[in-house]
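Journal club prep, shared notes

We agreed each person brings one worked example of a sequence with its structure written out as tokens. Mine is S-acyltransferase. I'm keeping it raw so we can talk through how to read the token line rather than staring at a rendered picture. Sequence first:
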Amino acid sequence: MKGRSLFKKKSPLPRSYLSDTSSSAAASTAAVATHRVYQVWRGKNRFLCGGRLIFGPDASSIVLTVALIMTPLALFVAFVSFRLADLIGKPLGAAVPATAMAVGAFDVVVLVLTSGRDPGIIPRNARPPEPEDSDSTVSPAAGGAPSWSLPPTRDVYVNGTVVKVKYCHTCMLYRPPRCSHCSVCNNCVDRFDHHCPWVGQCIGRRNYRFFFMFISSTTFLCLYVFTFCWVNLYLTSRQLGVGIGRAVADSPVSGFLIGYTFVTAWFVGGLTAFHSYLVCTNQTTYENFRYRYEGKANPFNRGAAANVAEIFFSPIPPSRNDFRAKVSPADPDAAALYYLGPLSSESRISFYTRGSLSFDMAKASFDLNYSAKRTSVASSSDFGDIGGGGGLDHRVSTRHLQEPRHSIFGGPGRESRKVEEEADAVTAELGATMMMQHQQYGGGAGAGRPRGREFEVV
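Then the structure, token by token:
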């Protein structure tokens, strides 16, 4: 009752003042949260439709893939299928062009489903995981404070078999079993199979079945065109009473498509056969080529029937990332999770005062102090080449400033001069702020440094 009466007390401030302050607070919050996740994504992905479609950095290769499929299909439909339909006659003749167009449309649909969806990206951690006493090593730091280092691997049990999982320094997490970090997209992907340059996307848990449908339907389309081009040449030779050579001269498109589909079918057909083997044994391409499970049983193999059911009939897990969610620079974890880019003056002040994480403007490699535990967040290979030097002024350089490519059609170099100048100003202000913090806390061995769950640049 005593606590409840506190809320019933009438505020001494006028209602107009309260409404003005609440509206101004809401306006400032809305002004700060001006970014969405897909706009500040740390991976190298490209997005379309406001973050609803996610592609790899090599998404432009989809145009080439579609051209390699649809161009011969258009030639077959226009110059072979309708002529063959007249030679075959009704009712079977009309099915030849209709089947070709239906399979071609299905092929493009599964290609988009493979390329334009989240393959199973594991969200990054804002800070390294807490080290366990059993597997962490302790070494004295320069200032006398203890320094914990996480082990590179951990052992987990999968169906009674020990499987080693690795620690990812870029995403600051222990990868789940069958997860791997894609160097092309710069993301940890669940059940990582491979990065396919033909579809411009990683192949993982959430798009593997569509990838298999794509290569299998492409194989079927190649064999379909190859077979009916031969049928067209055979019926043409019989109708004209000439040999196959004269029939090829009468229908040169059929001869071209026979050679084209013969070469293509070996490639996509072999790929389909290989992935059929992987599906039946419940392996990934990455596991097959790197580990091959030599000397031990595959812990994920549950039999051919169960493996096929797991790939094609199990529900697809939802994405772990909301690419359209709004991100506020005032969030203390924002700098570790996202690339915020140039911010307004109000956002910069809010970011510097509320959070003590390093602002990764120049893709520099910093060390984070987390509750007296010093862990390196990334290496130079993760964030680019960083110039040497012991001073803090050498660790932030405006010359290495770069914007991520988050548009499937756009690329670097399209920013205006005003944006570049603002970015330089932000980086210069960041360097001055970091230098002041370094001079303030650098005098003693950890004296006066913030404690608790705050980060600081060291």
